[in-house]
Amino acid sequence: PRGGSAKDEL
Amino acid sequence: MNIFRLAGDMTHLASVLVLLLKIHTIKSCAGVSLRTQELYAIVFATRYLDIFTSFVSVYNTFMKLVFLGSSFSIVWYMRYHKAVHRTYDREQDTFRHWFLVLPCLVLALLIHEKFTFLEVLWTFSLYLEAVAILPQLVLLQRTRNIDNLTGQYIFLLGGYRGLYILNWIYRYFTEPHFVHWITWIAGLVQTLLYADFFYYYFLRFIGGRGVE
Fold first, then answer.
1. What pLDDT digit, counting tens, does each position of B95-143 carry?
2. Kind and range of the H or E element at B75?
3. Considering CB atoms only, which of B67, B122, B178 is closest to A3?
């Protein structure tokens, strides 16, 4: 499933 | 990017700036744990390895460079700048920080989303960040008179963690399938460490007694 990734956080 | 995430990042940035201000202008690192600062340098170095492989936004890349640069320069100042190094509480800052690094590495090798080099190190950085503040909290409890800047630094770091949890709650309800157990549990543990500290700090403040 597509969704937001925590990788775009700092 | 939501308001909680942005506020969290700005609070994190403010905490680093407060610390740099103390080191740069007052030329003092009294009450600051070098062990914690070294752990943060390791955290950012291992988490931001993807700076070369994945691009999210100019904002993200810029902030990654700021956190990498600031954490390593703080360590450099505390270790090698003569005037700053003289103010370092070396005898008090005795937490065995390597005893935090190794268990986090083992945990990252055991519990991760994907078994790849970058992914395991990214997970390791989450686990390590959760406990990296411990040497600082221990040093703080040993130091009788902490100055305003050190207190503000820790207060801002705690605020950053709290805002990130609000950010995750917001993202969970607004983004489809935003479920990240490893990130959440590590972040929650980290925030609870601060909450525990603030609780005792508050008791000390209203009771006028030392932290036990």
1. 998 999 999 999 999 999 999 999 999 999 999 999 999 999 999 888 8
2. helix B58-80
3. B178
**Averaged pLDDT of chain B:** 93
Q: For residue B37, what are its two tokens?
A: 């600062």
C-alpha torsion angle, residues B78, B84, B86, B92 (rounded to 10): -50
Residue in B198, B128, B127, B110 with CA at minimum distance from that of residue B157: B198
Q: Report the alpha-carbon distance of residue B150 to residue B74 in Å, rounded.
A: 14
Determine the Cα–Cα distance for residues B58 and B21; give it in Å rounded to an integer.
25
ipTM: 0.84
Compute the distance between CA of residue B206 and CA of residue B63 in angstroms, rounded to an integer: 37
Show Cβ contacts of residue B83 under 8 Å, excluding neighbours closer than 6 positions: B27
Q: Which residues of chain A lie closer than 8 angstroms to B57, CB-CB?
A: 8
